[in-house]
Write a structure and sequence with these properties.
By secondary structure, the chain is α/β, with parallel strands linked by helices. It has one domain: 3-Layer(aba) Sandwich (Rossmann fold), CATH 3.40.50.720. The protein contains 8 helices and 16 strands. Strand 1, helix 1 and strand 2 form a beta-alpha-beta unit.
Length: 290
């Protein structure tokens, strides 16, 4: 049993992660975020919460964090704008400072949410040992943060994992994405829906599967470094959309080709699950060694 410090508890992934840990493990959770508005449901003796921003926590270590053995860092702002300069200008330095604080206060295992956008324009099956070349400020900042963990290993004794999140196809609380726009069009009875050509091949996860993978990869430390959180299954976006329309018995007409394909993504990419499967097995075998 360990005490798990989780940043970004108010986000959709943070809430799902806390629920998973409390339901499926004996660990205690120490959560924190900017507000406590979404956490009233966690009436559990193994859960405590502190309302504090990442910026504040990086400057002044809260006493409530002293019991923590593990950090899972999910907090990040401006996720609806991957081009926002804040990712590189302020956020990455804030997270570096907070993680250093964690190590100075004795935390021995760190998990930080990464992104498949770190791979940049690489095509095909993406393996964790491939060289990354991110194209936007958000993945550039994330990759810089990952590199800082490698440098910190030279000064501190700890293990770290970097779960790289692939494409989520499903409702994500508090965020607008392709899926939510499509569902809104279906539910509102819209006649048409504008999109790209839809021929791009992606690797999709449901929000529920993502939360499970994030928890299990983060709560083991025998498989370390970057780990793809993915299905390993290449699927065309247009096929995924048509499957959803069929399941919803929708007659919505797709206007394909209205929007261009993003210039910061490859046309075909999916994740290798080799390392993921190793991490999931390590979690199953209770391999969180502190």
């Amino acid at each position: 049993m360990a005490h798990i410090l989780i940043s970004g508890c108010n986000g959709a992934l943070g809430q799902a992660l806390v629920e998973y840990i409390l339901q499926h493990t004996t660990h205690h959770v120490i959560g924190f975020g900017r507000t406590a508005s979404n956490l009233n449901a966690f009436n559990n003796l193994r859960f405590t919460y502190t309302s504090i921003s990442m910026e504040e926590a990086a400057l002044q270590w809260p006493q409530a964090f002293n019991a923590a053995h593990v950090l899972i860092d999910l907090a990040w702002q401006d996720l609806n704008d991957y081009r926002n300069p804040s990712h590189l200008n302020t956020q990455v330095e804030c997270h570096k400072a907070f993680i250093k604080q964690c190590l100075q206060h004795g935390i021995k295992h760190i998990s930080v949410a990464g992104t498949c956008y770190e791979y940049g324009l690489l095509e095909g099956a993406l393996h964790e040992n491939m060289p990354c070349n991110p194209q936007l400020p958000y993945p550039k900042a994330k990759h810089e943060l990952m590199k800082s963990l490698e440098l910190l290993k030279q000064r501190y004794t700890f293990t770290w994992v970097w779960p790289r999140i692939f494409y989520v196809f499903g409702a994500v609380k508090g965020r607008t994405n392709f899926y939510t726009a499509l569902i809104q069009a279906i539910q509102s009875g819209a006649a048409t829906f504008n999109m790209s050509g839809g021929e791009q091949i992606r690797d999709f996860l449901t929000p529920e599967t993502l939360a499970t993978y994030m928890a299990q990869c983060s709560l083991q430390n025998t498989v370390t470094g970057p780990i793809n959180l993915c299905s390993g299954k290449p699927v065309k976006l247009i096929d995924k959309v048509k499957d959803l329309l069929k399941s919803q018995h929708s007659t919505l007409q797709l206007n394909t080709g209205v929007y261009p394909y993003p210039d910061y993504e490859p046309m075909q990419c999916w994740g290798s699950t080799v390392k993921l499967n190793q991490a999931l097995l390590a979690f199953k075998n209770n391999m969180l060694l502190l």
